[in-house]
Specification:
The complex is a heterodimer. By secondary structure, chain A is mainly alpha-helical. Chain A contains 14 helices and two strands; from the N terminus they run H-H-H-H-H-H-E-H-H-H-H-E-H-H-H-H. Chain A has one domain. Chain A has a two-stranded antiparallel ribbon with strand order 1-2. The longest helix of chain B is centred in the C-terminal third of the chain and has 14 residues. Classes of the chains: A mainly alpha, B alpha/beta.
Chain lengths: 326, 231
């Protein structure tokens, strides 16, 4: 029964995204979907394991450049490009994870930011011969048409991105309901007590780190394929806070938070930037308001109200003990 | 001083927090199915002793062994994996997880999914399964922590001040549970509730300023007035 309820919620959420596609321009819909995938990794790190990272653009760039190198130098199949982006995300996360997840709080946040800065300068200056520096790598016109869903066409790319996001949401929901999800949350609440039970909190943090950053790398590879272009701007330290902002806007640790946050953030950026040059100022004020209102984010605030209405409508009363984590 | 029945042997244990020494040459041994209590004032080093055995503090010198295996230097999760479970004093459970999820964590770690013994000891947990642990009372949290720790049939339970701040009826219930548990496992309990200590302990170590001041090994010696001298 519970499973039916959350599947129903998920389908409803994505039906809303499909409506977004009907009523809003295709680029906007595509950006929302990719941005929500980008935010999912950050949301998992922050909401489930308690690690705040200001270096998510680094992992985005890993996926984007891995896909771009393949698509620019070696081949033209976008599916293979995305697959290479995912593999690169796994390899990089496993390579640096054992060092990074030993750090806590501020240090973890800053070491990731430092990685984003390193990758930015690597792509912009040190590897400029390969990356073409600020000019970036262009391969939009050389993308091959693929059967079933042709990713070189934005309308079909939307369907692909939609399906990927749907699968990821289901995957994260599955993780949440699994023992691993419980271990992650337990590590966030009290790391020492996880050890009392016989779990290695280091391994839990490492696997959560790899899962989250591979998701981010996937988003990077999708950006590369969708735009047909990658430049160092993708890992700009100036944009390092974006996924954290979207996570907080949507609601930290909530299933639909990344989607809601991405819609609000991208929407505000799109609408406000047309009429108001300093649109980031508005985002800043909204964030301050959200923090002062209880740190739950937009979905985190709406969810209990929706549940209340749903339970009243079905005559089941209101659950005071919160039997579910979502 | 050890024999084949000893499940835990601590020899010449010295522990320090930075420059500040907390334990001085502590010796201790625990036999199978034995209930060992540690009494002493606040700051005597009782909790430090338990944390050192559980792997949360690294001794400066001395040995801690379980069935002949050296525990010093092993990570806490590996020691828990050997069947030495630590129940800390603070009664902090995984508040955002339900009672069921808390038990599942214990089950998965120990690969023991039989919760019948847990419900035999603590029937109340059965009706609280869907409740988030953060909503439990202090007594219920303690039940959950003990219940979770006994999954997998631990060799040794290290219990730090289990009755602190609990209602008398729950203290009585826990006393009976510890008596029952002692038939299957060894227990080391840090406790200031002397009537409880005297009711269940087979051996008492009295600690003062990081040193063992007395070791009461005979049942007739273990009386509140005998322990009180060291509090």
């Amino acid at each position: 029964m519970n499973a039916l309820r959350w599947w129903w919620g998920l389908v409803l959420a994505f039906a809303l995204v499909a409506l977004v596609r009907v009523f809003l321009p295709l680029p906007f819909a595509n950006e929302i979907i990719i941005f929500s995938i980008y935010t999912m990794g950050c949301n998992y790190l922050l909401g489930r394991i308690g690690l705040i990272s200001f270096g998510q653009p680094a992992y985005l760039a890993v996926g984007a450049y891995a896909a771009a190198f393949y698509l620019f130098y070696f081949g033209n199949n976008p599916y293979v490009g995305i697959l290479i982006g995912i593999v690169a995300g796994i390899v990089v996360s496993f390579a640096i994870g054992p060092l990074f997840v030993r750090l806590r709080g501020d240090y973890f946040a800053l070491v990731n930011l430092a990685l984003a800065v390193i990758i930015f300068y690597l792509m912009q200056k040190v590897l400029a011969d390969i990356t073409h520096g600020d000019n970036g790598l262009w391969f939009l016109t050389s993308l091959a048409s693929t059967p079933v869903l042709d990713l070189s066409r934005p309308d079909q790319f939307f369907i692909f991105a939609f399906l990927v996001a749907f699968a990821l949401w289901a995957f994260y929901k599955y993780l949440d309901d699994s023992i691993f999800g419980a271990c992650c949350l337990a590590t966030k609440i009290n790391e020492d007590k996880v050890k009392f039970l016989g779990y290695s909190s280091f391994k839990i943090r490492l696997f959560a780190f790899v899962i989250a950053n591979t998701t981010t790398a996937l988003a990077g590879a999708m950006y590369a394929v969708y735009l047909g272009f990658v430049s160092p701007e993708i890992t700009s330290p100036a944009r390092a806070a974006d996924p954290v902002v979207v996570t907080i806007l949507g609601g930290v640790g909530t299933l639909y938070g990344p989607l809601v946050g991405a819609i609000i953030y991208t929407g505000m950026k799109d609408v406000l930037s047309k009429v108001f040059g300093n649109w980031e100022l508005v985002i800043g004020f909204v964030l301050v308001f959200i923090m002062l209102a209880g740190e739950k984010g937009i979905w985190g605030t709406l969810e209990p109200l929706i549940k209340k209405v749903f339970l009243r409508a079905t005559g089941k009363g209101v659950d005071q003990t919160g039997s579910s984590r979502r | 001083m050890t024999n084949n029945d000893d499940i835990l042997t601590v020899v010449g244990l010295n522990v320090a927090y930075g420059e500040s020494k907390a334990l001085f040459g502590v010796n201790m041994n625990v036999r199978r199915n034995q209930v060992v209590a540690c009494v002493g004032r606040n700051g005597a080093g009782k909790s430090t002793l338990l944390k050192s055995i559980a792997g949360f503090l690294k001794p400066t010198s001395g040995t801690i062994s379980c069935n002949g295996a050296n525990l010093v230097g092993r990570p806490a999760f590996a020691i828990a994996g050997m069947g030495i479970k630590y129940i800390p004093q603070d009664k902090k459970v995984f508040s955002d997880l339900t009672v069921q999820e808390n038990l599942e964590l214990g089950s998965y770690a120990s690969q023991d999914y039989d919760w019948a013994p847990v419900f035999d000891y603590f029937p109340k947990l059965k009706i609280l399964m869907d409740r988030k642990a953060g909503y439990l009372s202090g007594g219920e949290r303690q039940m959950l922590m003990v219940g979770r720790a006994i999954l997998g049939g631990p060799k040794l339970l290290l219990v730090d001040e289990p009755t602190e701040g609990l209602a008398p009826s729950i203290v009585m219930h826990l006393r009976n549970v510890f008596k029952e548990l002692a038939k299957k496992t060894a227990l080391v309990i840090v406790e200031q509730n002397l009537p409880l200590v005297c009711a269940i302990a087979d051996k008492v170590y009295a600690l003062k300023e990081g040193r063992i001041m007395a070791e009461l090994t005979e049942r007739e010696q273990i009386k509140p007035e005998a322990c009180e001298k060291y509090l």
